[in-house]
Amino acid sequence: MNLTKEQTEKIIELAGVDLEYESLTPNDITKALIRIEEKLSCLVDACDITASNAKVLIVDDLELSTYQLSTLLKKIKVCPVVVHSKLEALSEIKKQKFDFIFVDLFLPDEEDGLAVMKFASSFRTENEKNYKIIAISGTDDLNLVTDCFNAGVDEFVSKSAKWHEQVLKIIVDKNQPYTRKNFIRYDIDDKTVTYNVKSLSKEDYVDELYHNVISVLLAGAVNVILNLENIKTFPMEYARLFTEVYKKCSEVNGMFIILNPSEPVKEVLEFACLSDIITTVDSAEDAFALLNG
Asked: Model-level pTM?
């Protein structure tokens, strides 16, 4: 395995080994990888995960990430197909049948990652495939997260401390086939949740979103961001959604922010006299500035 200095130092950090890069030997790196594998084994045991026969494609140019994820998946009897570039990914998607496609956003830049996500999404639609597309990244840039959802991904896994556990849960829960969701939730941190909303044209859609928001607020979140740039139809009678979410966020001393409100949304806010009450912004940067202010 050819590792850069940055990758090697990351392995040592994850393994909890107190050694300097300059003094490392190949044997030290091997021991560190073994310690990481042992940690991953503990994670699997803790999750009480059984064997899976899922077909998984991992698209990531960082060998450390693919090593970690491959090692973990083998614990549940999954032998993933691993590729490191956009061209390799497109080839495998065309050739093989997958249940899950995990794509790192940076390959090494976001343009390649987004290109793979877009191709996987369109190929799925055109060929009536049933796989799930999951973006993986350490970014906290909400604009990039939104770009992933707009590219057609079904879930976004942030490379936080528990990202391996999230991957496992997604795969083990493979009895739930791909379905196009009316919204996709992304937990920015313990306190802030954002929703990329695709449709609010039916009462069932509004109710589903509202109940999900309430559940995350009860779980400890306080700030809610709704990205509504894709909302093309929004009946006036559904304005209660905004009123109730605003009220619930206020009750926990949090903020409710509408990001990129479309014209139908602006009309509803004006009609319901909510324009001066509910905060609206046109960029993710403005939303974060308000939350951090």
From this structure: 0.56
